[in-house]
């Protein structure tokens, strides 16, 4: 009924492909979690979620480690995102053809932004803490081991053990401090791998979004110091 109303009045819609848990900021305590079937898989396999060093997992979105792993009822994470986008496009094809859906925002991580959930308030983070690396699920750990072997340094197949906790300051850690391990051969390798994993996820999802939505404007949000929309 809503879409018929939009069509009748020639409203223009911006739609959001939200592949993450959404907590309402206007509607109070409203929480829209991941689909039930995903949560049921997660109950038996916590590694489908981003995980920090103490083993706490974050159910806000799927880890990018499952992008190419068939752990979601026989599908990979990328296939699930693609199937959802394709189904939406097919269902509302007439609105796309008439230009009433003017843009599509693609969720790429927690809060819909291209970022790791490293600053999780639910886990105790408070500004201006450095946050924590989120690569301890078994799928990202396996990816890290493969990357380290390819570089010929299997000993590098680990996340930093001196990066502090959520609320540490850079100078309090051995990794982020001035002349810290971040600038060592291992540190540069790890940060390059960690960053490239994020970039690969964006490339994979956005290439399929472009295929599905074709000429429709695509919007993504990239976390720097503040959310910044990018229009494709």
Automatic annotation (TrEMBL):
Keyword Hydrolase (UniProt): yes
The enzyme's E.C. designation: 3.2.1.2
Signal peptide residues on this chain, from the entry's feature table: 1-18
Record field: transmembrane: none
Protein keywords: Carbohydrate metabolism, Glycosidase, Hydrolase, Polysaccharide degradation, Signal
GO biological process: polysaccharide catabolic process
Catalysed transformations (reactions): Hydrolysis of (1->4)-alpha-D-glucosidic linkages in polysaccharides so as to remove successive maltose units from the non-reducing ends of the chains
Entry-linked InterPro entries: GH, Glyco_hydro_14
Keyword rRNA-binding appears in the UniProt entry: no
A Pfam family reported for this protein in Swiss-Prot or TrEMBL: Glyco_hydro_14
MF-aspect GO terms: beta-amylase activity
Family: Belongs to the glycosyl hydrolase 14 family.
Protein name: Beta-amylase
Organism lineage string: Eukaryota, Viridiplantae, Streptophyta, Embryophyta, Tracheophyta
């Amino acid at each position: 009924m809503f879409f018929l109303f939009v069509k009748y009045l020639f409203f223009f819609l911006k739609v959001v492909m939200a592949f993450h848990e959404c907590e309402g900021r206007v509607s109070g305590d409203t929480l829209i979690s991941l689909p039930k079937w995903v949560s049921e898989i997660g109950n038996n396999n916590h590694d489908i979620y981003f995980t920090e060093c103490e083993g706490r997992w974050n159910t806000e979105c799927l880890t990018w480690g499952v992008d190419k792993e068939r752990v979601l009822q026989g599908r990979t994470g990328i296939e699930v995102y693609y199937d959802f986008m394709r189904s939406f496009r097919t269902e509302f094809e007439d609105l796309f053809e008439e230009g009433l859906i003017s843009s599509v925002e693609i969720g790429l991580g927690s809060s819909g932004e291209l970022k790791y959930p490293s600053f999780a308030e639910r886990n105790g983070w408070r500004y201006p803490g450095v946050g924590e690396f989120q690569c301890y699920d078994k799928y990202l750990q396996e990816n890290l081991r493969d990357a380290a072997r390819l570089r010929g340094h299997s000993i590098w197949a680990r996340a930093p053990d001196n990066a502090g906790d959520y609320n540490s300051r850079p100078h309090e850690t051995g990794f982020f401090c001035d002349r810290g391990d971040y600038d060592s051969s291992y540190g540069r390798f790890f940060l390059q791998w960690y960053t490239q994993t994020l970039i690969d996820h964006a490339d994979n999802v956005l290439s399929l979004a472009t295929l599905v939505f074709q000429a429709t404007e695509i919007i993504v949000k990239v976390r720097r110091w503040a959310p910044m929309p990018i229009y494709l």
